[in-house]
Amino acid sequence: MPEIRPSVPASVAFAAYLAAVIFGASVLGAVIFPFLDVVYDKVFSRALILMAVVLLWPLASALRLSRDELGIATFRPPWLVWGWVGGVLLILPPAAVMFAVGFRVLDDRVDAYTLEFGGLVVLAALSGLIVGVVEELLFRGLIHGLLRRWLGFFAAATVGSALYAVMHFLKLPEDTPVIATPGVTAGVNVLLAGLQPLASPLQYWDSFISLWLLGMVLCWVRNNSGQIWICVGLHAAFVLVIRVIKDLTVRDVVNQWAWIVGEYDHFVGHLISVWIIAIMLTMLVWRIVLERSDHGSGVIED
Questions:
Q1: Nearest-5° angle of CA 81, CA 148, CA 160?
Q2: Is the C-alpha dihedral spanning 243, 248, 250, 251 positive or negative?
Q3: Rounded to whole angstroms, how far apart are CA atoms 199 and 190?
Q4: H or E stretch including 244?
Q5: pLDDT value of position 3
Q6: Cα–Cα distance measured from residue 267 to residue 275, given in angstroms and rounded to the nearest whole number
Q7: Which of 42, 160, 292, 293 is paired with 117 by a 20 to 30 Å CA distance?
Q8: How do beta strands 104-106 and 249-251 pair?
Q9: How buried is residue 114: exposed, middle or buried, by Cβ count under 10 Å (0-12/13-18/19+)?
């Protein structure tokens, strides 16, 4: 196992990266906000994504992370397709359970056969792809690649997946005042307000475990495939399917099975955690069977 030791230059570089992303997004958000007809926190969140991608390459260069360490040394379009198809197939069974127990029911106010809804699906697909690329580059590329310099796979995946899970709970409380005229530091204030949900970890612990397990699976795929593109496809499919299901359905909040999802997004939670664990155990058993099969097929010669 590699020696575990801290790296001050890496810590400083990553801290500088985060500061540059936050401040840059705050400035960019303040500049473009007057031209957009959306609330500021959405403008800021999109600016964060843009700055995170733009500044990722200078950070990787400063840390001397190779393309192999980032998981982007090679790219083949079929990898994205395989990941996307796999993601759809993986997320549909738990979604079907939510329908079967009556927790999610079709919203009769929504017509899925209109051009407007078709446009929403296309936007959800594009959004899923963008989110997949950004988050996989950051977490399974940069952070996982950096942690693997000092930690073994399991430790690196555990730490990186915990950071990945925590990131999802950085959101504004519902009672946050609307920002009408943002200044260049408004984004910083939004981000600080978004840290408030982290002060109540018990409210989201089930969703945290679910997202942490998902991060572990994505790290496993990245480690075994040697690249992040299958992970991008998986991630994009998850975002798309969840978005479409939430647009097409409503929740039965008094349903006796409502506890199977968490408060974070009313989708991930106990059910998804059990499903992911079942998948991980299935892969483990399959691997053991294959190894025994390969060992038993050996030919003994005199």
A1: 65
A2: negative
A3: 16
A4: helix 229-248
A5: 45
A6: 13
A7: 42
A8: antiparallel
A9: exposed
State how far the Cα of 94 lies from the Cα of 273, in Å rounded to an integer.
Answer: 10
**Count of all residues that appear for the chain in the document:** 302
Mean pLDDT per segment of 10 residues, for the chain of length 302 residues?
50 85 86 80 80 85 87 90 94 94 88 78 89 91 89 92 87 64 76 73 86 95 92 95 91 90 90 94 87 65 46
CA atoms lying within 13 Å on the CB side of residue 204: 18
Residue 252 token pair:
């039965």
Q: Which two tokens stand for residue 201?
A: 């970890």
What is the H or E stretch that residue 59 is in?
A: helix 56-62
- CB neighbour class for 62 (10 Å; exposed up to 12, middle 13-18, buried from 19): middle
Instruction: Please give the pLDDT value at position 178.
Output: 62
- Residue holding tokens 């408060």? 263
Per the DSSP assignment, residues forming a β-bridge with 250 are 105
pLDDT of residue 301: 47
Structure tokens at 8: 């001050």
Which two three-digit tokens encode residue 124? 């959800």
Please report, as a single letter, which amino acid is at residue 285: V
